[in-house]
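hey
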């Protein structure tokens, strides 16, 4: 099933993101997580892909294929392009087709200082156009409510996002954010830029301090005072910190769904307990048709 067709206005879409285990770990380590996530009835599950490209990413395909065959949940396979040639991408798309995977998230990937980027693709839009021309794929792209970290300003960022949609993305998933007002302002900019595809809000429940430091370094998300206060208050009490992080995410989700967001994409960090606690708190909100 094409993921973009899930946004038919009858409900708010709930989806999850997982990452494949490192190559040094057995692939089975993810299976238990998936078993528990299946019980939470997401509409689809996305599987991340290494920015380096190459063989390591066969695991993404393996996990995506397992989600489809074992649980009959639609997988969304991420693919990055900055360190890949057209022939690398062709190989991966061929494998995806052989595994009946038709939903692809096209990404540039972060530029890694010690890897010289390949020349075939410069931006995610290049990959989106390429994948579109290669077969009957449904294509998703990433968007950034606070602007992408390399963007000079928010207007340039949304105009570049429009190019990605014009190249073939029929659905977008946002970077994580901790202040919903950034997401609402971004939605207005996207609307003005003529972006009319469904946009899911990416929510990451923060349950430990290391996670916050890593996330902020990677994506530069602003931390509102309410959030930092809470994290400081409980930083030496892991269980209380997890409760606070889950409560914060639940509050963000309840507000977004009430405001009519197209979907919530939960960055599960492969932690089914956290995903379950969130679904127990707000699961019923997703079956109410969104008001526009
Ligand atoms: P692009 O859309 O290409 O944008 C990158 C930058 O280039 C932006 O600043 C944009 O404004 C600018 N730009 C775009 N087009 C042009 C143009 N024509 N001219 C000039 N500038 C332009 N990374 C992974 O390695 N693996 C994953 O699985 C993964 N999954 C992700 C999932 C989500 C939902 C999100 C939000 C991010 C994910 N990332 C992942 C991170 C992502 O790869 C990085 O944020 C990366 O730096 C940008 O990727 P992009 O696809 O958004 O790039």
């Amino acid at each position: 099933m094409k993921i973009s067709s899930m946004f038919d206005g009858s409900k708010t879409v709930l989806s999850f993101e997982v990452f494949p285990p490192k190559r040094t770990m057995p692939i089975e380590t993810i299976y238990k997580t998936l078993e528990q996530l299946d019980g939470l009835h997401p509409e689809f599950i996305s599987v991340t892909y290494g920015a380096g490209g190459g063989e390591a990413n066969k695991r993404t395909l393996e996990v995506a294929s397992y989600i489809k065959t074992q649980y009959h949940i639609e997988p969304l396979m991420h693919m990055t392009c900055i360190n890949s040639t057209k022939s690398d991408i062709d190989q991966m798309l061929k494998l995806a087709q052989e595994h009946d995977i038709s939903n692809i998230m096209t990404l540039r990937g972060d530029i890694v200082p010690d890897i010289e980027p390949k020349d075939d693709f410069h931006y995610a839009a290049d990959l989106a156009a390429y994948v579109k021309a290669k077969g009957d794929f449904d294509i998703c792209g990433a968007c950034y409510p606070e602007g992408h970290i390399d963007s000079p300003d928010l207007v340039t960022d949304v105009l570049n996002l429009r190019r990605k949609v014009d190249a073939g993305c029929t659905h977008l998933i946002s970077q994580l954010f901790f202040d919903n007002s950034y997401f609402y302002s971004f939605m207005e900019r996207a609307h003005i830029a003529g972006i009319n595809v469904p946009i899911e809000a990416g929510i990451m429940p923060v349950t430990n301090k290391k996670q916050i430091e890593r996330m902020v370094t990677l994506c530069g998300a602003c931390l509102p005072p309410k959030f930092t206060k809470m994290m400081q208050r409980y930083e030496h009490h892991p269980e209380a910190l997890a409760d606070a992080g889950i409560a914060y995410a639940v509050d963000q989700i309840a507000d977004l769904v009430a405001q009519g967001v197209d979907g919530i994409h939960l960055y599960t960090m492969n932690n089914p307990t956290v995903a379950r606690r969130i679904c127990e708190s707000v699961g019923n909100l997703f079956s109410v048709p969104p008001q526009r």
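The chain has a mean pLDDT of 94. The domain at 11-281 is CATH 3.20.20.220 (TIM Barrel).
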